[in-house]
Amino acid sequence: MATEAGGHGADAAASGMPQLDFNTFPSQIFWLLVALVALYYILSKVALPRIAGVIEERHDAIEDDLDRAGELKRRAADAERAYEAALAEARARAGEIAAKARAEIQADVDKAIAKADAEIAAQAAEGEARIAEIRASALRDIEEVASETAAALVEAMAPGAAAPEAVKAAVAARMQG
Length: 177
What we know:
This protein is an all-alpha fold. The chain has one domain (about 45-175). Helices cover about 90% and strands about 0% of the residues. The protein has three helices and no strands. The longest helix is centred in the middle third of the chain and has 133 residues, at about 25-155. About 0% of the residues are buried. Residues about 1-10 have low confidence and may be disordered.
């Protein structure tokens, strides 16, 4: 049994790995070449054209995306310039509206001031007229009191010597001068 097992083991050792058996090399090389040619044919006719097509599609898509991005960038720049122009126009218009409003308000203020000045002038003239009237009345009252006082003094000093008209004339002359 030992020899049988040993003989059987010797056959296995002699045969070894089939890939390393020099007797099968030409057949292995033939099939290697057939497999490589088949693989080359499949890759060159099927897989590589598909990969090249996908790469070309991706390249075209990237180019299209870049073109669209450039166009959108130009549009954004145009929109920004339009926005800036509109903003400047709006600011100018706002300035014009503010200036117009200021002018209208100033005109209203000037009218109100003129009206107030006219009312103040009228009240001042009325006040001056009243003051003049009060002054005239006060002067008449003073002249009358002064005449009565002078007449009373003259009568007290020299009874019957003073004529009322002469006393009034003397008081009036004295007040005026």
